[in-house]
Amino acid sequence: MKNIILIGFMGVGKGSVAREIIKQSNLVALDTDDIIESMENRSIKKIFAQEGEEYFRVLERKVALWLQKKVRGTLISTGGGFFKVPNLPKIGTVVYLSAPFETIYNRILAHPDAEKKLRKRPLFQDIEKAQNLYNERAALYKKVADIVIDVSDKEMSDIAREILKKVK
Ligand code: S3P
User: Fold this and answer.
1) Which residues pair with 98 in a beta bridge?
2) How confident is the model at residue 168 (pLDDT cuts 50, 70, 90)?
């Protein structure tokens, strides 16, 4: 069985959607940021601060090759920039979780741990820069996606159901 890969901008809810899909199916899940943090035994924030972004991108490409070779039938949530790995289509069915930037930002702010959520994301330190990154990426996410799901104003459980129906 093919893997399902969730892509989308920081804070769009890839992790929450993955948890909901697990509840509704018998899939097991992996997260590319979690894999990188355990490979490196340090946080994404530290990796960016101590080594820089390019070092992190090399790790993402390494994880992508491992996923392609070794992982099957798994739900894979990803960091917001993972979609740029060259072998993405070979890993599985790519599902893009889409929402306007304002919706994503408000979703983060509404979270009880909003400050922590922003602090751990090196590319979300400056709103204007994050908005520019969103504008640069929006069309690119769509281009690599097999399935696009608009997640604005929807319950997590409905989003998960929609994805499971579409990947069947
Ligand atoms: C990044 C998104 C982050 C993390 C890293 C870079 C990006 O993941 O991989 O900070 O380039 O958009 P989330 O999408 O889970 O925040």
Assistant:
1) 150
2) confident
Does the Cβ of 33 fall within 6 Å of ligand 1? yes
* Pick from 168, 144, 127: nearest CA to 8: 144
Half-sphere exposure of 55 toward its Cβ, with a 13 Å CA cutoff? 12
Answer yes or no: are the C-beta atoms of 163 and 95 closer than 8 Å: yes
How far apart (Å, rounded) are the C-alpha atoms in residues 158 and 63? 30
Question: Mind listing the domains of the chain with CATH numbers?
Answer: 3-158 (3.40.50.300)
Span 99-117, average pLDDT: 94
Probe ligand 1: pick from 10, 104, 126, 134, max atoms within 8 Å of CB?
10
Per-residue pLDDT at 20 exceeds 90: yes
H-type helices in the chain, by residue range? 14-24, 32-40, 44-51, 53-70, 88-91, 101-110, 114-119, 127-144, 156-167
Given a cut of 90, whether residue 120 has pLDDT beyond it is: yes
Mutate to test the pocket of ligand 1, among 16, 19, 32, 33 (most ligand atoms within 8 A of CB): 33
Using DSSP's 3-state secondary structure scheme, residue 29 falls into strand
